[in-house]
Amino acid sequence: MGRGEFFAFLGPNGAGKTTTIRILTTLLRPTSGRARVLGLDVTERPGEVRRRIGFAMQTVALEGLATGRENLELMGRLHRVPGPELRRRVDELLELMGLAAVAGKLAGTYSGGMRRRLDLATALVHRPDVLFLDEPTEGLDPQSRAALWQELARINREGTTMLLTTHYMEEADQLCPRLAIIDEGRIVVSGAPAELKRGIGADTVTIQLEAAEGEMATRQDAVARLLDGFSPLQGLERTDEGVRLAVVDAASTVPDLLRRLDGDGIGVRALTMQHPSLDDVFLRYTGRHIRDEAADRPLEIGW
Question: What residue ranges define each of the domains in the chain, with the CATH number in brackets?
Answer without folding.
Answer: 6-197 (3.40.50.300), 202-275 (3.30.70.260)
